[in-house]
Amino acid sequence: MIEVEGLKISYGAAGRLIEAVNEVGFSIDSGDSLALIGPSGCGKTSILFAIAGLVKPDAGNLSIAGERVDGIRRDAALILQNAGLLPWKTVWENANMSLRLSHRYPAENAAAVLEELGLAEFRDRFPAELSEGMKRRVGIARALSISPSVMLMDEPLASLDAITQERIQNLFLELWKQRGFTMVFVTHDIEEAVFLGQRIIVLSKRPAQIKAVVENPQMGELDYRESKEFHRLVIELRAVMQR
Helix or strand or coil: residue 199? Predict the structure, then answer.
């Protein structure tokens, strides 16, 4: 379980302090999925980075599986907007990087993940030789190689075309169902939030506060996008965000 209580985050120095997050609290059970959505610059990424241990909050409590978050955790993986690949390293080297940094072996785990994601034949290619969709899959492979119990994602499909977005959303859904990790992701895409989030938290403009919580118990199947409930929730979320 991830628990967030009374979270406050600000940036800058005295006199130029920017308050990013103000008194945000929520919890998510192990193996569940949570989407954070809201206006640009509202503090979504700050919340995600605090859960990842990359940002130290000014106040509040953060815990994963009952342990206080105090620095980067080895059981949590983070996927960024641009996949964060090193251009001078191959697909194999990029996918294996998390294992090396966390001193977790064997590296065969990364090889198995590349196979699972259809990237094995490209292991010796460099990022410049890959499509944007394949780069994102390499970023996913790097995250999965450490077998995380928590998957954190900061707009991982931003700037992709609609068809590629849907394919990778489908991939995330299948991986989440198969591997059982807890998934928390930031997105600007209302349909993505409804497709992948069991619960959707709508945040206000900065400083972020919780504006609404929308439950989405029917998500979980690839054909959910075609259902009446999916479209109803998309309309509901759009209305909430426009208030």
Answer: strand
